[in-house]
């Protein structure tokens, strides 16, 4: 992808104006609104404010970014320099940090932005020929903990181990036989990053590679010294740099494996949590059923206790009568406790007596002891009388049932209370 040059207005000169600038551009609506999610604009503003506070050389701007498919979109960027320390000397590396549409849920896009007198080192483990930066911090970006300040610190640390830029040596008409003229003041080059990197080399003239006798030196911008002397690669330094890069790769691989293991462990815990919740629901349902069953058993127990009290009372009343059973009159064996019971007893006895009389009349009619017309007349009279006794018994039985239900309700209320 190749973003064009920035066209945003002048950057705010101090933190207060930076905050005002960011609040203004992030609060715009309509066609000129920036394509960031509303729930992340406050976090984007905080990230940029923290970045400009920690690195005053990085200024927030708005610029048009062109995607590979030709789409252009207005985005925020942090344009400036990132300090690095190389062999005891501090240099400033010009960079542009683009905040893409999905930021901060996804990492920003970082480019090294060389000036006209600089060239990108080839090959470089973290910077491709177009200037696009790829470091482990960007690859392992985690929302919402990752931020721009930590990104700038990682860029400084990695660039200090292996600088991505070299000074371009231009031919000079000076007849001075010294083939290695001193570089310009490093501070003067740190403010000349006017071109934005892209994937085509036609945007700025490709610098000529330095001769073999004069190996390129790191870009010296904004530091306390410059590489103006001829340098040669020290095998010890090369071995040390390669060992450090190898260790970084190994640590990155270990961290990635550890992260995958922790993610798998978290997935297992989430699955176990779902299973435990399902079992909790089952246990709650079973507990409710057991409580309902307990309440039903308690009600049955109250009924049994009530009936037991009634039977025990009857036994206490009739225990003395059992000892005098020989002298007990048959008619006194059963005593009616109330008028309804006495009336029920009389109706039942009359019904059974009439039943016996009708049976005897049937036997007499079969044997010819009485005339048939007399048999019919007596059976009709007895049946009429039996009907009235049975109707009375049915009414008495209904009244007894109603009284029994009322009595049971009173007893249950006493036991419950």
Automatic annotation (TrEMBL):
- The biased composition feature labelled Polar residues covers 193-204
**Residues in domain UEV?**
25-169
Residue ranges for the region (Disordered) are: 162-234
Q: Which InterPro entries match?
A: ESCRT-I_UEV_domain (IPR052070), ESCRT_assembly_dom (IPR037202), SB_dom (IPR017916), UBQ-conjugating_enzyme/RWD (IPR016135), UEV_N (IPR008883)
Coiled-coil regions listed in the entry: 280-307
Gene label: LOC112490972
Instruction: Tell me what this protein is called.
Output: Protein ELC-like
One GO cellular component term noted in the UniProt record for this chain: ESCRT I complex
Q: Where is the composition biased (Pro residues)?
A: 174-185, 207-218
Q: Which family does it belong to?
A: Belongs to the ubiquitin-conjugating enzyme family. UEV subfamily.
Question: Which keywords are on file for this protein?
Answer: Coiled coil, Endosome, Protein transport, Transport
Q: Drop me one GO molecular function for this one.
A: ubiquitin binding
Which is a Pfam family this sequence falls into? Vps23_core
Q: Which residues form the SB domain?
A: 338-406
Which cell locations does it reside in? Answer: Endosome
Alphabetical GO biological process terms: endosome to lysosome transport; protein transport
